[in-house]
């Protein structure tokens, strides 16, 4: 067996390595704005210090957004806002992925007596990409845990972190008369 010519093959391999290194430059396409990390990081949404290991802020990784502390803060605010009984439906719609398309469902959830009593505690936020996060959350009614920590999702859409539509669908069963679109 005759060895293959090494000159052109080695040159092509080196070019492929350089191209691969250039593509993996670390730019995740995230928001280039910079802000100071939130002072609320490390506390649960109930306002009391949370010393559980799941409440630690995410650390920047190849899959995290440019500013994971700010992103986590935005995710927690979106979740709290969605469950805030005083927040108008129009504002809740802006907190959900493609929310305007599902405004009827969001309105039903907001007006449902049983669903309106729910509050949320975000227990953990783990970024799976610069635009997606797994959210561990607990549903509460008063001091009673309704749904122990459950996985949910947040997505970055139009430069804002929102509750994923798939998560909204899973929350619909928490109300008595919340209409579910066919997409659920």
N-to-C order of helices and strands: HHHHHEEEEH
Rounded to the nearest angstrom, the distance between the terminal CA atoms is 60 Å
At CATH level 3, the topology of the domain at 67-175 is: Nuclear Transport Factor 2, Chain: A
CATH architecture title of the domain at 67-175: Roll
Low-confidence regions: 1-58
| Mean pLDDT over the full residue set | 74
Strand arrangement across the biggest beta sheet? 1-2-3-4
**What shape does the CA trace take?**
globular
What is the C-level CATH assignment of the domain at 67-175?
Alpha Beta
Number of strands: 4
**Please, how many helices?**
6
Topology:
Blueprint lengths: L5 H18 L44 H15 L6 H5 L9 H9 L1 H4 L1 E10 L4 E10 L2 E14 L2 E4 L1 H7 L13
Antiparallel strand pairs: 1-2, 2-3, 3-4
Pfam family, one: Mtb12_C
InterPro entries: Mtb12-like_C (IPR058644)
Keywords: Signal
């Amino acid at each position: 067996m005759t060895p293959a010519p090494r000159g052109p093959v080695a040159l092509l391999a080196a070019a492929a390595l350089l191209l691969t290194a250039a593509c993996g430059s670390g730019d995740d396409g995230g928001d280039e704005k910079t802000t100071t990390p939130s002072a609320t990081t490390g506390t649960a949404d109930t306002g009391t210090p949370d010393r559980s290991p799941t409440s630690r802020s995410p650390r920047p990784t190849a899959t995290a957004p440019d500013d994971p502390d700010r992103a986590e803060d935005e995710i927690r605010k979106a979740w709290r806002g969605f469950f805030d009984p005083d927040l108008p439906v129009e504002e809740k719609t802006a907190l959900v992925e493609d929310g305007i398309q599902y405004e009827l469902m969001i309105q039903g959830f907001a007006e449902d007596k049983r669903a309106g009593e729910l509050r949320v505690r975000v227990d953990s936020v783990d970024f799976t990409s610069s635009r997606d996060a797994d959210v561990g959350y607990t549903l509460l009614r008063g001091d009673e845990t309704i749904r122990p920590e459950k996985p949910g999702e947040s997505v970055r859409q139009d430069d804002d972190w929102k509750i994923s539509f798939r998560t909204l669908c899973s929350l619909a069963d928490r109300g008595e008369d919340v209409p579910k679109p066919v997409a659920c």
